[in-house]
Amino acid sequence: MARPPKQRRIETIPQFIYFKPAGVAKSRLKEYTVSFEELESLRLKDIENLDNEQCAVKMNVSRTTFQRILASARNKVAMALINGGAIRIDGGNYRLADELLQCPHCTFKFKENVRCDKEDKDINCPKFIASQK
Is residue 106 within 8 Å of 63, Cβ to Cβ? Predict the structure, then answer.
């Protein structure tokens, strides 16, 4: 059985979620759906100019997963622009950044995505970091 995908961390929900070429009826357009985490990958990489490792940490995913999300987003946006399609931003497996993370080992709750002290897991518990100083 495949393990369930981790929720990706995004910082904001965009104000506008639908884009289309001017003067063309919606009914005549092919629609490309970009997920919220795909949009976040574009924002982090192309607007914030972060490197892939920094982007992956901010989104709470591995570097290879980030690269896959970014490639998918860029492909959809390019297809819509080149082929004159509409872009809808919708769906995905995400949570907003201001939600608290919980260390799966010591149950401490915090906002930042860092590594856990126990077994060097994905989340870094600040409680442990403070105790090491």
Answer: no
Asked whether 10 and 35 are in contact (CB, 8 A), the reply is no
Q: How far apart are CA 57 and CA 66, in angstroms?
A: 9
Q: Spell out the per-residue pLDDT of the chain, length 133, in tens.
A: 787 777 899 998 888 999 999 999 999 999 999 999 999 999 999 999 999 999 999 999 999 999 999 999 999 999 999 999 999 999 999 988 776 666 666 666 666 554 444 444 455 565 655 554 5
- Could you list the beta-strand ranges (E) of 11-59: 18-19, 31-34
Contacts of 87 (CB under 8 A, 6+ apart): 18, 19, 20, 31, 32, 33, 34, 76, 77, 80
Residue 31, beta-bridge partner list: 86
Domain 8-96 sits in CATH 3.30.60: no
> pTM of whole model > 0.70?
yes
Residue 69 contacts residue 8 (beta carbons within 8 Å) = yes
